[in-house]
Automatic annotation (TrEMBL):
Record's keyword terms, sorted: Membrane, Transmembrane, Transmembrane helix
Name of the protein this chain belongs to: Uncharacterized protein
Membrane-spanning residues: 28-47, 67-86, 98-115, 127-146, 158-176, 229-249, 256-274, 286-304, 330-354, 366-386
């Protein structure tokens, strides 16, 4: 693919934005648009990562640098959605609806979140309703991008890699709220050790909201405001399910492992940058790798037993790949879903215990892995049914 068909002047780009690409420009414009999506989400991810650490140090500020970085990515997102939706570039109806609906939800959530802070003061948890709207909007937005890119790009190694990046951004969005516990545990430990990482004005503000002095109860309420069952259930039922979906759709071997490893590597790099510049530290979720590896092994094991490349057949772009009809393939896939969920959950729980032994974890209610297993098994089974029907 060449970019020589793209405009070389400002007026040419303005014309392209107004009228859309012609037939010769189509492939190059689609490629350029989805590269810009990667840039936009990279900015949003960097902003959100910095934002979480920022809020464990200082009082909230609408114009804080992490918010501005995230806003820069959002501006690019809005421009891309308007362009693609208006000119139908690199999207079908489903992708367009997901992009537009997700972006609209995200934009509506911004004033709601600001109003929430104005009325209720400091919002000390990433698990609040107004924040959930931001995550949900971003999730739908990313699903639209994943679908749009997949159906508008011919099969290739580049499509596999870029799709993995998109699902990596989706994983980061899913895991963003659980970072509250990963930062909160170390924040509480620092305060108990007499070396708080949060500024006194932040701790005082949080304590005033519940009418207490700055004591252990107040600091715990700020640092760890949700029950200990939330973290293991979310990691298993949401993060691992994201990796299952990515593996099923992309279809490449060790997709889940590659995405999880990339996310963990990103968190470790950001840990070094943030901690090195005086920001609070977090506990990186190394435990995620065990579940990801288990997912990939289950896919490969069941695929091998059927003599095929993947357990759940993946899309191959706009075209459909014909397979033999019958209930046996779906039955095996459903068995794999339940078995795979059990193996991945057990691997994650074991890795959690090991991580806690060596570097620590947020508070963990181990029976809550059972809740995550139920969601993961159900979600994996639904993915099996949907993808099996698409290939029938």
């Amino acid at each position: 693919m060449t970019t020589q068909t793209l405009p070389r002047t400002t007026s040419g780009w303005v014309g392209l934005a107004r009228s859309g690409p012609d037939a010769g420009q189509g492939p190059a414009v689609v490629a350029a648009v989805y590269r810009l999506w990667l840039v936009a989400f990279a900015l949003k991810m960097l902003g959100s990562t910095w934002d979480m650490s920022w809020h464990f140090k200082w009082l909230r500020d609408d114009a804080a640098p992490p918010h501005l970085l995230n806003t820069a990515g959002t501006v690019i997102v809005v421009a891309l959605v308007l362009f693609q939706a208006y000119h139908n570039v690199g999207v079908d109806k489903a992708a367009k609806r997901l992009m537009v609906g997700g972006t609209a939800t995200f934009l509506i959530a911004i004033p709601i979140d600001i109003l929430n802070h104005r009325i209720n003061g400091l919002d000390i948890t990433a698990w609040s309703a107004s924040h959930a709207l931001l995550y949900i909007g971003t999730a739908f937005m990313l699903l639209g991008v994943a679908r749009g890119y997949w159906i508008s790009t011919p099969p290739s190694r580049a499509r596999t890699v870029v799709s993995a990046f998109i699902w990596g951004f989706f994983l980061e969005n899913v895991l963003f709220p659980s970072q509250h516990q990963e930062y909160g545990q170390l924040s509480l430990e620092s305060w108990l050790a007499g070396k708080p990482t949060a500024e006194p004005i932040l701790l005082q503000f949080a304590a005033d909201q519940i009418g207490r002095p700055v004591d252990k109860i107040a600091v715990t309420g700020f640092a760890l405001p949700v029950d200990s069952w939330v973290y293991p259930a979310w990691i298993t039922g949401a993060a691992l399910l994201t990796l299952v979906a990515a593996r099923a759709i992309i279809g490449a071997r060790f997709t889940a492992t590659a995405i999880a490893a990339s996310y963990v590597a990103y968190r470790l790099v950001m840990w070094g940058l943030l901690a090195g510049t005086g920001f609070p530290k977090s506990i990186p979720p190394l435990l995620l790798l065990a579940g990801a590896i288990a997912i990939d092994i289950v896919f490969l094991a069941f695929a091998g037993s059927r003599g095929k490349k993947s357990l759940i057949p993946q899309q191959a772009g706009p075209e459909r790949v014909a397979v033999a009809k019958g209930s046996s393939g779906l039955g095996v896939a459903l068995v794999a879903a339940v078995f795979g969920a059990a193996v991945a959950t057990a691997a994650t729980a074991g890795a959690t215990w090991l991580q806690d032994f060596f570097i620590g974890t947020p508070p963990i209610d181990y029976p809550a892995f059972g809740y995550g297993f139920a969601v993961l098994a159900l979600g994996w089974a639904i993915i099996a049914v949907v993808t099996n029907r698409q290939r029938a």
